[in-house]
């Protein structure tokens, strides 16, 4: 091995997120629709039959499969499967910032327009109900923010003798802001609220 070999290796490397191959990757679509002279955002309520997060509010989306050519393709595919619509009914799909979750997930969000809402026949195995919220509501409503504090706890046989400070090492604590939007009887929070908030920040005048 020499410097030229190292340089050539680095030139061919595309920088990404360290350890990304171990993350679960998901793609979601924030659907916009025109209704009653306003723009609405469409949400799903997850089916009670689902193992993960039954009954929670989310955007259409799911895990990126090997056959998906891109995160955008995965977001559109999942949306068509969950809402029972055709690809052609989803227009103007644009990416917004992706999100790296502290729980081992990378989420790729997209914003798109659904033209023919009357054609929606959602998959009841995955979706309990759908509902829409006027965009104007979110533009006029700030979310409530609460903090979640996490603490690092080394395993029992952790080699404290190998690090400065030993068992008194000052582990850096982490706080996560959780956003909550309340609309009628619906509570929008978690990753869905964070993606929604990011979209609003990007599009506010």
Detailed description of the structure:
It is an enzyme of class 3 (hydrolase). This protein has helices at 3-12, 71-83, 135-139, 190-203, and strands spanning 24-35, 38-46, 57-58, 61-63, 90-95, 99-101, 105-114, 127-134, 144-150, 174-183, 186-189. By secondary structure, it is α+β, with helices and mostly antiparallel strands. The strands form two sheets. Strands 1, 2, 3, 4, 5, 6, 7 and 8 form an eight-stranded mixed sheet that branches. Strands 9-10-11 form a three-stranded antiparallel sheet. The longest helix has 14 residues, at 190-203. It is globular, with a radius of gyration of 21 Å.
Question: Topology of this protein?
Answer:
Blueprint (H helix, E strand, L loop, with lengths): L2 H10 L11 E12 L2 E9 L10 E2 L2 E3 L7 H13 L6 E6 L3 E3 L3 E10 L12 E8 H5 L4 E7 L23 E10 L2 E4 H14 L2
Parallel strand pairs: 1-7
Antiparallel strand pairs: 1-2, 1-4, 2-3, 2-8, 5-7, 6-7, 9-10, 10-11
EC number: 3.6.1.55
Pfam family, one: NUDIX
Enzyme class: hydrolase
Mean pLDDT equals 92
Shape: globular
Q: What string, H for helix and E for strand, traces the elements in order?
A: HEEEEHEEEEHEEEH
Number of strands: 11
Radius of gyration over C-alpha positions, nearest whole angstrom: 21 Å
Q: Helix amount, in percent?
A: 10-25%
Largest sheet: 8 strands, mixed
CA-to-CA gap between the ends? 55 Å
Number of helices: 4
Unreliable stretches covering 5 or more consecutive residues: none
User: What percent strand?
Assistant: 35-45%
Given helix and strand content, the structural type is: alpha+beta
Protein name: NUDIX hydrolase
Cofactor: Mg(2+); Mn(2+)
Pfam families: NUDIX (PF00293)
Domain Nudix hydrolase: 23-156
